[in-house]
Q: What sequence folds into this?
C-alpha cells in the first residue's frame, strides 16, 4: 500500500512568486492534515480536512495560504505571494479515523520550500 | 501559553543500553500523547500513543510512561541499537481538538556501536 506522497520534494522560488504543494493521502483516509516546520522551530499544525471539508484551519498563518481538497482525494496548498518567512518543510499527513485518539497520523516525506 | 519541552541536546549512548527521553509540558492538559521517530529528510513515523488514563504502554523494545501529575512522559528504548539513532518527537493532543497535534522540538538520539 502506498503511503502519503508529497510533491515536489523541494521547491526554490523567489519572494513574491507562487508555489503549489500537492499531497496524496493514503487511499481511503478521509482525514488529511497539513503541518509545517520552519527553521529551528517545532512542527506546527496548519489545517485539517475531513473529505473535502475544512474542519479546522486555525493554524494557517495568513491569507496568502490557500488549501483545497476538491473531491476529497488529494490536496493542494498554495502560497501566493511567497515571503521569506514561508521557507520550511511542509508535511502532509492522513488518518483513517477522526482524531488522534484512535490511531496514528501517517506523514509524508515533506515538501521543502525555500524562498529567496 | 502551551509549552512542550524536550531535551534539545543530543543523547549519546552505547549500543545495548537503555535510552530514556523526556517530554515535559506546561499550561496544557493533554488527553493523548504520541511519540514519533523522524530520520533526516523524512517525515515523522508514529511509534506509540498513550492516553491520559494510562500509566504505561509497551511495544517491543519501546516503553512510554505518562504522568499527568508531573506533566511528563518518558520514552524508553531498551537494548538500543545503532539503527535506533534518529530524532524522537513528543506530540500532545487535547480532547477538544484531538486531531491537532502539538509537537515538541524533538531529541536526537545517537547509539554508538
A:
Amino acid at each position: 500500500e502506498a503511503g502519503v506522497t508529497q510533491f515536489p520534494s523541494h521547491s526554490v522560488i523567489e519572494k513574491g512568486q507562487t508555489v503549489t504543494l500537492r499531497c496524496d493521502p493514503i487511499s481511503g483516509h478521509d482525514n488529511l492534515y497539513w503541518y509545517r516546520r520552519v527553521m529551528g522551530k517545532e512542527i506546527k499544525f496548519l489545517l485539517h480536512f475531513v473529505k473535502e471539508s475544512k474542519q479546522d484551519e486555525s493554524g494557517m498563518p495568513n491569507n496568502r495560504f490557500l488549501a483545497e481538497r476538491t473531491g476529497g482525494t488529494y490536496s493542494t496548498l498554495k502560497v501566493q505571494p511567497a515571503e521569506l518567512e514561508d521557507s520550511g518543510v511542509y508535511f502532509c499527513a492522513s488518518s483513517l479515523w477522526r482524531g488522534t485518539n484512535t490511531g496514528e497520523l501517517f506523514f509524508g516525506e515533506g515538501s521543502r520550500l525555500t524562498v529567496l | 501559553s502551551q509549552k512542550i519541552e524536550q531535551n534539545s541536546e543530543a543523547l549519546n549512548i552505547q549500543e545495548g543500553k537503555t535510552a530514556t527521553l523526556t517530554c515535559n509540558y506546561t499550561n496544557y492538559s493533554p488527553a493523548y500523547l504520541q511519540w514519533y521517530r523522524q530520520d533526516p529528510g523524512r517525515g515523522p513515523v508514529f511509534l506509540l500513543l498513550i492516553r491520559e488514563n494510562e500509566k504505561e504502554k509497551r511495544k517491543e523494545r519501546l516503553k512510554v510512561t505518562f504522568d499527568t501529575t508531573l506533566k511528563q512522559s518518558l520514552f524508553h528504548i531498551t537494548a538500543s541499537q545503532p539503527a535506533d539513532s534518529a530524532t524522537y518527537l513528543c506530540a500532545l493532543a487535547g480532547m477538544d481538538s484531538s486531531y491537532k497535534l502539538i509537537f515538541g522540538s524533538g531529541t536526537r538520539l545517537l547509539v554508538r556501536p
Observations:
- The interface with chain A takes residues 4, 31-32, 34, 36, 41-46, 49, 51, 89, 93, 97-106 of chain B (CB under 8 Å).
- The first strand of chain B starts at residue 3 and ends at 6.
- Chain B is about 0% helix and 55% strand.
